[in-house]
Amino acid sequence: MIYKIVKDFFLKRKVNSKLKNYQLQLSSNKIVKVGVLIDANYFTNQEELIEEIVKHGILRENIEILSFVNKNRKTILEKFDYFFRKDISFGGLFKSERVTDFTEQSFDMLISYYDIQKPTLLLVTRSSRAKFKVGFQTIDKRVNHLVINTFAENYSEFISELFKYLKILKKI
Questions:
Q1: Domains in the chain, please, with CATH?
Q2: pTM of structure
Q3: pLDDT in tens, 41-70
Q4: Bridge partners, 109 (sequence order)
Q5: 96: buried, middle or exposed (CB in 10 Å: 19+, 13-18, 0-12)?
Q6: DSSP letter (8 states) at residue 76
Q7: β pairing state of 109-113 and 81-83
Q8: Helix (H, G, I), strand (E, B) or coil at 110
């Protein structure tokens, strides 16, 4: 328990130092490849979320999911890539190939699907090479290009609002 608190403290410091001079880059590319970063400890409807994205015209094979889970929740995510707190060092380096591969992919859009701010998830979002980042309003505004004001449980509302704004921005 104390280890978790101390590690989160150091990760939070690392994220804040990385965000201090961080500038989001804008891209006018159309959205084809989508990455989704999920906090699976609080949101377990990954399949339904994917189906909502597919309904709006994104192909299933162009969607990658990475879920952050506690050790005891691993069994519910066998068909999705996942990572644990231990996959990130105290200094904010990724020890897991799954996390490194996910952050190095140049997605056209990254959906940060978590509404509770956690240093591990913020670090992955910040480190991602995605050209356009979307998330919830409750998360640090410096990380995402577009924020949507809703709750994680309302995934259909989140996705419909997202695609409404993507049409306005001429991203799809």
A1: 2-168 (3.40.50)
A2: 0.85
A3: 888 888 999 999 999 999 999 999 999 987
A4: 34
A5: middle
A6: G
A7: unpaired
A8: strand
